[in-house]
Structure formats: C-alpha cells, structure tokens
Design a protein that fits this description.
The structure holds two protein chains of two kinds. Chain A is of the alpha/beta class. Chain A is built from 15 helices and nine strands. In chain A, β4 and β5 form a beta hairpin. Chain A is elongated, with a radius of gyration of 22 Å. The relative contact order of chain A is 0.20. By secondary structure, chain B is α/β, with parallel strands linked by helices. The chains are: A alpha/beta, B alpha/beta.
C-alpha cells in the first residue's frame, strides 16, 4: 500500500509557492486536451512529489488532544478515524475513539463486536465508546439537577422527553458534552480523543451548538456547559479537525465548504485533508500513446482516474492545509490489521514505484 | 457482452407501468445520476418525466438546467439535448429540492394567518426546517406529493437524501408527526410553565416538579418558547397528519417502484441487502437493483499485448493489470453474494465509467446501459441460482 503526502510542509512560504505553481499548472492544463498533454504529466508530478515529512500524520498532529474526523457520508470517515486511532495508540498515546448517534461501525471493524455505551478497552492503549442520545441526556440531567432521582423522574417521563426534543440544541449539546468531557478530564485518563463525527452539514451544526447557545441563551444551565465546550473547540492547541474526501467533484466541493465553515463559523481549525481512494499516476501521456488498443484503453482509463485524483488534490492543496492521499486497499473487509496499515501509511513518504 | 434477456427485460418491465420511482441507497453510490437517467430513458421512449434531485453535483445540476433556484424545476432545453445527440419523444423536467422553501410553503399552506407568521419567525422552526435530522427525508417525500398534485408528468423519479438506512427515510413521516404531536406534553406542562415560579404549587404537583426540573435543564425562557411553539404548531397538526397519510399511501401504491442503487464493494452490497430487507418488510414494490462502477477483468488481448512488451514498462503494466483484476475479482464476489441473496429481482450491472457523470452525454450513456440491462458477468453462482 502506498500513501502520498501531497503538501505537508509546515512552512507557509513554501506552501504558498507550491500551491501557486500547482494552480498555474492546473490552469494551464485546461487549455490542452486532457489525457495527452505533457503539462498534465507535470501536474501529476507536482501533486505527488513526495515531501520529506516527519513521521506519520498522527505524529504531525501529536500536540492535539481532540481530533474530530469529518466529511461527506460514504467517503470513509469511520475507516480513517479507526486507522488514526490505531496509529495514535501504537505511538504510545492512550487514545479514546468515539462515535455518536446510534449505529455502531467502529467496534465491529476493530474488534469484531460493538463497543457499547461504556468506555471499553479495545486494544493496548486504545479505548472505545459509542455515545447514545438517551444515556447522554440522562447523564447531563444528573450533573445539572444534582439528584439522580429527580433526573430519572424527568427523563423517564415520556411527555417530558418529548418536550425536551424540541429544546433547540440540547441533543447535540449532551452528545458533544460526553465527548469533550474526556478531552477536558483533569485526571487525564486519555491523551487523545478521536471522534468519528457526523457527516457534513450535520458536522457544522453539531460543533457550532456551544457557540450558538452562548450567543442566544446566556445564563442558563445549558449556556454554562456550552462555555467550557466552546473554549476547548476553538483552542487550536487542543482541537484540530481532519476532513475526509474522495477524488471526485462533489466530495471535494463539500470538503472545501466544510473546511471553510468549520474555520469561519465554528472557529475549529482544519488541520488536514485525507483524500481517500486516491489513484496514483502510473503512466505518462507518451506511454499511453505508445501502445495499441485494447491495452491503450486500459492505460487511458487508469490515467484519467489519476488525473481526476490529481485535480482533486490540487483543489484541496490550494487551501494551504496539508493533503494526505491514500489508495484504496485491496482487501475484502477492513480489520484492525488493514486499518493499522492505513494509519501508519497516512502522511508518510513512499519508496518510488 | 449484454446481459441475458432476463435482467434487462425484467427491469424494463418492472418500470413500464410505474408512475413514481424512488431510488434508495447509501451516500456516494450514484443515486442522483441513476435517477436522472431513469427519467431520461422514460422521456426518450415517449413518457413525460420529472426527476426531483436532492443534492446533485454542481456540473450535473448545470447540465440539467437546475443550477439556480429550482424548487419547481425546469424543462431540459432542447438545444442542449440536441447537442448531446438525444432525441426525446416527451418532455423531461428536472428540479432540485429546496428544503427551506418547501417547508415554508408547507407551513404557509396549512397555518392560518397570525399563527403562520409566528411559526415562520420562530427559531425553533428554523431548526426544524433546516437541521433537524429526518426533516430532509420528510420534506423530500412531501415535495413529491406536491409535484404529483400540481403536475401531470407520467413518471416522477425521486432521488432520496443519503441516510444511514432506508428505515430513516421511510419512517420520516411518522417521526415528524410524532415529533410535532405533543398534545400530551402541552397539556401537562404548558399550564405549569405559564405559571410564575412562586405559584407552581397550584398546578398538579407531579408535572410542576417535572416542569421545574426541565426549566433547570434547558432554561425557563427556552422552555416557554418551546411551549408556545408547540401551541402554534398544534393548529396545523391535522393538516400534517393528512399529508403524511397521503405520502405513505403514495409510497405503497401499486404504481410506485423502488430502485436500489449500490456499488460493487462488499460493504455497500451488505448495506444494500439490509435496505432491501426493510423495503420488503414494508411490502413496498422493488423494481430491481442497479450496481454502479463494476470493474471487469482485463481482456485477454491486452494481456497478450503486455507480454510482448519489454523491461520496466512491461512490469509496470502487468502490475497495473494485476490490480485491476484483483478489483474485478472482488467485485464479482460481492455481486455473487448479492445474486445469491436476491434471485427474484433483476440486477443491472453498470460498468465503471472513466469520468463522473456530469453532462447529458454521460446520462445518455447510463440510460443506454439501463435500457440494455447492463453488462453480464460470467457468474457461475448466478446461473446456478437462476437455473431453476
């Protein structure tokens, strides 16, 4: 398996010049017939030129204590979250992997069984929890009302529960609160929390809940909770988002929008893009032209795919945020071994093919 | 290689008398392009059609002429069709769901004047109409119902919002109704909330306690807003109930067909099978399964060509062939699993395209494949399953 770190230089200056040249190449390439131009070759090279990086992606993000993994549905968020968690744990950090909102995907992938709603040890240095609405609400009730009996009286009352569903943001607040509790935790039970976050659209709404509450309902119990959560989210020493995309038009558009919204409306800093199912360039335009059909058709289609991947990487790179490209794994289903391989390949350089 | 008569003909047959087609499947499997292609092939064969898309890729939306505002949709211009070599015997219309506008229209239609203004201005309504999970599913169905009433196209295709499972989509009307129907909660909590803190004791003790506790949890002001909103919304509950009932009836109608869309990966196929189970449990009519992006084995002629090359280039090509073959084999396994589980439904296998479908030519090609019943793989399992 191979992985390319497309743009991961920490120096802003170097970043900018490489984005500019990549943009120039991308712009120029539209004037030529895609698929046969030398400029396209140059573009492909520029995207995949390997930067000498320090360690894997998780090592580059090692100072962060909270890493939400976000992106459009179906792009491989859960896979990347699990892979990063394994890599984080293998580098010695006590890591908690969280998922929210019902359906369990991570546990079955990693250990073959659901994680459940109580923090469970999965593998050495790795814990997991699946946070559910009802339990989160009950816990919030206990904390706020101080009396478990009273809290139960409220939450076991179906009418009250129904009523509470209408309270804007309370559902999101309690879920986020349960996740961030482990980030804030003074006892430092975990060094790092990785969250398989809701899909795009939901993600921005989800993370902006504390901010919105702070602005609208000052003084309430909910606002008090919102204050500490918001402080953790906007602290870029603590929180940094990873956005997963596929090398296709819509997912890239959504990833760019998401990066922009996280930064501007929630003030969470996106720290990396992961371009999943990336196709590496294998054949130059000359090589494609040099063979006859039907082989030519095969090489052309591989090349078109690589070009699409390259264009996607360039569009993401233009933000100045590092882009980590990862090829599709040739395995039937993901397990802890294949996920660990993805985790350790994310962000590393590879031997030339 | 075309599919044996079976799948293509059966798929066509199952769609022939459909007046509504609903495409379902996970995110990113190509539901939108399949929806548009199904509408295109209907119009090509002389049935006027309308496709209601949820979140099309920008270029595809532009190609369909729905880049801008499009709640009512617009007809695909004939020049654009001609340029792409498409001849339609009936009109094809495409539209894109505008969630906020659809909700506003719904409220405007059902709520009387002073209440309407209060609902539209409420911040609770803003959350309901934009971010509440399930509300997109609900409004998409509701929109389909509105279009069926207002327009006369002989086929309407509904692309569905990506959701983790089909249940979420199908249950959306019930969940919204359940959500809005808080008669009981209002009856018990509203008086308690309206009373000032000091006189809470005059209300029934149990509900006063609960109301007070909830005030501590969510803030008294917020709770009061909720109570007022529920009060307003209850005015239109009856209208909502009728609509939801009609929508459910439309989905279960004899002339409504579901088309399940998936890709050929193991995970997606597993997901598709669980979607299918849900559709069947509800007794809904499934026309067939479209499998997108199927990779085929490299042709032997290309292998022979590679063998005649030399050195590094040959090695590189053989490696690439190996990778394509490996994927093709995995796709076959996934498809045979699908065939094994579903032998009474047509399965239409669409080959992987070099580019995303982003224009009318791409849609035309996809419509051609759908017409032909897709490619056929020499799957032994498939033959065996279907043999009897």
């Amino acid at each position: 398996m191979a992985s390319w770190a497309a743009s991961a230089t920490p120096s802003l200056e170097r970043n900018r010049s490489s984005i500019d040249s990549a943009k120039a190449v991308a712009a120029a390439s539209t004037f030529f017939i895609v698929g046969s131009s030398r400029l396209m070759d140059a573009m492909l090279r520029s995207v995949t030129s390997r930067v000498n990086l320090e360690g894997t992606m998780i090592e580059q993000l090692r100072s962060l204590r909270f890493i939400p993994i976000t992106g459009k549905g179906g792009v491989g968020k859960s896979t990347i979250a699990a892979a990063m968690a394994l890599e984080s744990a293998s580098k010695g950090a006590r890591t908690l992997l969280c998922e929210v909102g019902g359906e369990e995907r991570l546990g079955p992938m990693l250990v073959g069984s659901p994680m459940g709603s109580v923090v469970t040890s999965l593998l050495p240095n790795l814990w997991g929890v699946s946070i559910r609405q009802r339990e989160a609400l009950l816990e919030y009730g206990k904390l706020t009302l101080k009396f478990e009996a009273l809290s139960r009286a409220v939450f076991n009352n179906p009418l009250a529960r129904q009523f509470l569903r209408f309270v804007p943001s309370i559902q999101e607040l309690v879920l986020l609160g349960k996740v961030l509790f482990h980030v804030r935790d003074d006892a430092r039970r975990f060094d790092r929390v990785i969250l398989d976050a809701p899909a795009t659209g939901h993600a921005v709404g989800f993370f902006s809940v504390p901010k919105v509450l702070l602005e609208t309902v000052r003084g309430d119990a909910m606002a008090k909770e919102a204050a500490w959560m918001h402080a953790l989210l906007v602290d870029e020493r603590v929180t940094g988002a990873v956005i997963v995309a596929l090398p296709e038009e819509t997912p890239v558009n959504e990833a760019l929008e998401l990066a922009d919204q996280l930064q501007s409306s929630v003030q969470i800093r996106p720290r990396a893009f992961v371009l999943n199912r990336f196709h590496a360039p294998k054949f130059s335009a000359e090589e494609v032209e040099g063979v006859a059909e039907p082989l030519k058709g095969l090489l052309r289609s591989l090349r078109l795919r690589a070009e699409r991947s390259a264009r996607s990487a360039i569009r993401l790179q233009a933000t100045g945020i590092p882009v980590h490209c990862i090829e599709e794994l040739e395995v039937d289903h993901l397990d802890s071994r294949s996920l660990a391989a993805i985790g350790s390949a994310l962000g590393t350089k590879v031997a030339p093919r | 290689m075309m599919a044996e008569e079976g799948d293509g003909a059966r798929f066509r047959g199952a769609l022939e008398d459909a007046s509504v087609v609903v495409t379902v499947g996970g995110g990113g499997v190509g539901k939108t392009s399949v929806s548009a292609a199904l509408a295109l092939r209907a119009a090509r064969s002389g049935r006027s059609s309308l496709v209601l898309t949820i979140d099309p890729a920008r270029r595809l939306a532009d190609a369909l002429g729905i880049g801008g505002l499009g709640n009512e949709g617009s007809e695909i211009p004939s020049e654009a069709l001609a340029q792409s070599g498409i001849v339609l015997k009936a009109t094809m219309r495409a539209s894109m769901l505008d969630m906020k506008r659809s909700w506003d229209e719904l409220i405007t239609r059902h709520a009387p004047e002073p209440v309407r203004e209060r609902i539209l201005a409420s911040r609770l309504y803003a959350a309901l109409s934009t971010t509440l999970s399930g509300s997109q599913n609900y409004i998409a169905m509701e929109r389909l119902g509105v279009l069926r009433e207002r327009r006369s196209e002989s086929l309407m295709v509904l692309d569905t919002p990506p959701s983790a499972n089909t249940k979420d989509f199908l249950d959306a009307p019930d969940r919204i109704l359940d959500f809005l129907d808080s008669e009981g909660a209002r009856r018990i909590l509203l008086p308690a909330l309206r009373l000032s803190r000091g006189s809470l004791k005059v209300a029934d003790a149990g509900s006063a306690l609960v109301a007070r506790a909830m005030g501590r949890l969510a803030g008294t002001n917020t709770l009061r807003q909720v109570a007022e909103f529920l009060d307003d919304i209850s005015e239109i509950n009856e209208g909502f109930r009728k609509r939801a009932h009609a929508t459910r009836a439309l989905l279960a109608s004899d002339t409504t067909r579901f088309v399940l869309v998936t890709d050929a990966s193991q995970d997606r196929v597993r997901e598709a099978l669980s979607f299918l189970e849900t559709l069947r449990e509800r007794g809904l009519h499934v026309a067939g399964i479209v499998v997108n992006g199927v990779v085929e084995l490299v042709r032997d002629a290309a292998r022979v060509q590679a063998r005649n090359l030399r050195g590094n280039f040959r090695r590189k090509i053989e490696e690439a062939i190996g990778e394509v073959d490996a994927r093709a084999v995995r796709h076959r396994e996934a498809i045979s699993r699908l065939t094994h589980a579903v032998h009474d439904l047509p399965l239409v296998l669409i080959p992987q395209f070099d580019e995303d479908i982003h224009d009318l030519i791409g849609l035309r090609d996809l419509a051609d494949w759908l017409d032909r019943g897709g490619i056929s793989l020499p799957l032994e399992a498939r033959e065996a399953e279907r043999g009897e």
